[in-house]
Amino acid sequence: MKNLLTIAGSDSSGGAGVQADLKTFGALQTYGMSVITAVTAQNTQGVTGVENISPEMVKAQMDAVYADIQVHGTKIGMVSSAAIVEAIEEMLIKWRPVNVVLDPVMVSKSNHRLLQPQAEKALFEKLLPLAALVTPNLPEAEVMIGSSIQTLEEMEAAAQRIFRLGPKAVLVKGGHYTGEAVDILYDGNEMRRITCDRIPGKNTHGTGCTLSSAITVYLSRGDSLEQAVRKAKAYVSEGIRQGLSIGGGVGPLHHYHPFYLPF
Ligand SMILES: Nc1ncnc2c1ncn2[C@@H]1O[C@H](COP(=O)(O)OP(=O)(O)O)[C@@H](O)[C@H]1O
Ligand SMILES: Cc1ncc(COP(=O)(O)O)c(N)n1
């Protein structure tokens, strides 16, 4: 059994954040644990409130988990504030966990800020260098490099520039692109285009959270980075295919595929 930790924000509607991460860990038959950074009041239509957990409490949660349980992979999502970034950095340096996957969550699909603007620099400078993989979507990659991305070639150039900020590898996700769902994986050596058919349908709330959690699972099982990304992408695609039309807005992908055994 692999033990997986998510450090992320709570989504009251259960589609993204900690809830999506724990559902992914459970569906992929690992033991899931959570360090909550912020609580959001959120549904399929938007975010109506955010309350941060104190940096001291974030540190206490991380200490509690890492001191007691062997953690085979850690996924980091919404970190909300610069003070929380610093708390997480301090604990990562203290505990040196393996397989750290950073999803640099900045804005929700419903267009609500989940990272304070003044925390962007802290996230880039303090957490990127500690990550085995960072998984920006297109708008996040644009913020990281400070220019717009229109083509696959520009996605590849962005991956190279983000790599220079210190992570061991970069996955620029193409969910916001047109045509096939192409993600660019760059490890400082090889540039790969990882492509899946674009699944029609609007229920994509939580795709980024789910992808980074599933990658963390597969890395913890010893898969190569490329294999882990390919398997996680297949899991997300099936989840979108079975997406749930609940609520009045963007519904969540589905995590329990009783007739579909991922890998
Ligand atoms: N309609 C879709 N069909 C298939 N894959 C998708 C679709 N939308 C997003 N994806 C995939 O889901 C993952 C998350 O991507 P993205 O939506 O860009 O992230 P985020 O949720 O962080 O904005 C990526 O692997 C992306 O290619
Ligand atoms: C607590 C939390 N974390 C992350 C996301 C991003 O997910 P998405 O990009 O699907 O809106 C979210 N909406 N809420």
UniProtKB/TrEMBL annotation:
<dbReference type="GO" id="GO:0005524">
    <property type="term" value="F:ATP binding"/>
</dbReference>
<keyword id="KW-0418">Kinase</keyword>
<dbReference type="InterPro" id="IPR004399">
    <property type="entry name" value="HMP/HMP-P_kinase_dom"/>
</dbReference>
<keyword id="KW-0784">Thiamine biosynthesis</keyword>
<dbReference type="InterPro" id="IPR013749">
    <property type="entry name" value="PM/HMP-P_kinase-1"/>
</dbReference>
<dbReference type="GO" id="GO:0008902">
    <property type="term" value="F:hydroxymethylpyrimidine kinase activity"/>
</dbReference>
<keyword id="KW-0808">Transferase</keyword>
<dbReference type="InterPro" id="IPR029056">
    <property type="entry name" value="Ribokinase-like"/>
</dbReference>
<feature type="domain" description="Pyridoxamine kinase/Phosphomethylpyrimidine kinase">
    <location>
        <begin position="11"/>
        <end position="254"/>
    </location>
</feature>
<dbReference type="GO" id="GO:0008972">
    <property type="term" value="F:phosphomethylpyrimidine kinase activity"/>
</dbReference>
<comment type="pathway">
    <text>Cofactor biosynthesis; thiamine diphosphate biosynthesis; 4-amino-2-methyl-5-diphosphomethylpyrimidine from 5-amino-1-(5-phospho-D-ribosyl)imidazole: step 2/3.</text>
</comment>
<dbReference type="Pfam" id="PF08543">
    <property type="entry name" value="Phos_pyr_kin"/>
</dbReference>
<comment type="similarity">
    <text>Belongs to the ThiD family.</text>
</comment>
<protein>
    <recommendedName>
        <fullName>Hydroxymethylpyrimidine/phosphomethylpyrimidine kinase</fullName>
        <ecNumber>2.7.1.49</ecNumber>
        <ecNumber>2.7.4.7</ecNumber>
    </recommendedName>
</protein>
<dbReference type="GO" id="GO:0005829">
    <property type="term" value="C:cytosol"/>
</dbReference>
<keyword id="KW-0067">ATP-binding</keyword>
<comment type="pathway">
    <text>Cofactor biosynthesis; thiamine diphosphate biosynthesis; 4-amino-2-methyl-5-diphosphomethylpyrimidine from 5-amino-1-(5-phospho-D-ribosyl)imidazole: step 3/3.</text>
</comment>
<keyword id="KW-0547">Nucleotide-binding</keyword>
<dbReference type="GO" id="GO:0009228">
    <property type="term" value="P:thiamine biosynthetic process"/>
</dbReference>
